[in-house]
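Researcher: Structure prediction, please.
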Amino acid sequence: MLKSIQQRDLERNRWVKVGMSVLLGVICLSMLTYLIPGMGSAAFTNSPDAIATVGGQNITATDVQRQLNTALHGQSLPDVYKAMYAKQVLDQMILKQALTVEAQRLGIRVTDQELSDRIKQILPAAWNGDTWLKDRYTTEVQTRTGMTIPEFEDFLRDQMLEDKFRQLVTDAITVSPAEIQAEYRRRNEKVQIEYVLVKPAELAPTIQPTDADLSAYYTKHAGLYQVPEKRSARYALLDLAKLRASTTVGDDALHAYYNSHIDEYKVENRVHVEHILFKTVGKTDAEIAEIRQKAEDVLKKAKGGANFEDLAKKFSEDDGTKPKGGDLGWIVEGQTVPEFQQAAFTLPKGSISDLVKTQYGFHIIKVLDHEQAHTKSFDEVRSTIEPTVLDEKVSAAANDISEKMASAIRQSNHQPLDDLAKKFNLTVGELPLASATDPLGAFANSQDVRTALFQLRPGELSQPIQTPQGFAIVTPKDIQAAHQGTFAESRSRVLADYQQEKSLELAKSKAEELAKIAKGGEPFDKAAKSLNLDVKTSESLSRTGSIPDVGSGQLLDAAFTMPVGQVSDASNVTGNWLVYRVAAHEPVNDAAVVLQADQIRQQLLLSKQKAAFEAFRVALEDRLKKEGKLVINADAMKRLTGSRSS
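Model: Predicted structure follows.
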């Protein structure tokens, strides 16, 4: 291909200029679907790893995984998404090969001339006029795409082949004025409703069953009320707080830390400033003149003795500092734009600048303090050093003791916990009975403590476990085996489950009763009041709007075609039950369609083209299956995606 490009006449009447950013975007999205090294080079070999065979070429799980890894650029993917993305990759690989088979049948191909044209469109830097620069071309491809020349050109051929099929399938598709008008109305029509939302969660507490009701419910659902294994424990803790309280740090250690971290205590020239900003970005000259006048007025107030912080909170357009009275904090040289820096670093402490013009707008600057470059003395930073050095000393001591504790337990993990605690000056305590999902007393939700406790046998000691409190050693005390919960043990759970079940039934029943009464002629508000339900009235909303508690207007699609006064059926909306009455329709200004017509036409066209190509893809793959040119290995597909393929 390199040679053919070099020899080809590259004069063109018209070039489409496509930026490299577009190329890279296309490659990122499409590379995994087309760039399949080795796909066309070997005939089907009945590989046990093959997922699909298209026109005699096999696609294996290894191919899919390779393309998935390429698309992810080494990033990890949660297991829950792996099957979904793997299926998408496989579908695109099948489509690519299916189009190749269909192109051979129809005599459709991408010529060298067409490929050359496309390359020049997206890599113009590889040409000097009509002279092709081979080395520049190679460099551009490798640095900008990460592909080899053959991979890049194969990728473009596959992409261009799909473009040809898309053109064949979609060229005749149009959007009529009637379709544009209908879509405009669908998007812009609005409806207002009166509605009742019956929430099971609010009804649950009102349901107060008798013990007989709960007992019967428990008997019917006894299998749900298993009591998991529970364990209590004793523990010995190397308490970091106590160790810290008994540890001291000498001046020698503090000085040593200071000297080894001296660079951290060097302070650059800096100034503490407040400012008031009047933005001019994107403004016209006339607007900038008005902004300047406003800034001058505020400046007079600031220099006249008005509180600077109050002025900043009222007038500044810097959202980050406005709530803080314009306080920018300490800034160092080089941190701000030159004009701002010049004013801030030359103004005396306590003074206010004239207007300072920068690329952002007009600033009024107040200097609160100056600090010259210097190294903070040991005495200045001692109070900040001491906690750090103390933490390091405590941590080292704790790790040392923990290692000794671990060594002792490795010699015998059945020795008395109290003896170990006495030897290492540990605090002894107890953890109450808890399941593997319950909080563990003093150690709350420590997963490491929980895991160790439920793996130990009676009498065994764990290795030291690091917790926020320190290093802990745990040993089981009492073990309560998992068992079928009695009614008494499970009563609170039974009550919650009973209330939840009955509240769902009650909510549905109330909503259906409301719809029945209101449809029978009773005014909507009176029907709701008779059932102790509250009626709310929505704002006028479109399908893209929403109602608090209810959700998107798309959930109310039927309301847009219902006449005013009609009452809906009861419907389940995200777990709650909804009944509504259409209160009003807001007329649509049909004449305004001209303002959105082009956008709507383009969006409808793209949608119809996408649907048409998808229908073509499905029909093509179905035909290839019937002809035996597309074979799916159902078992391999299941292993890849977790579901059967037809």
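Model: The longest strand covers residues 361-371.
Researcher: Thanks, that helps.
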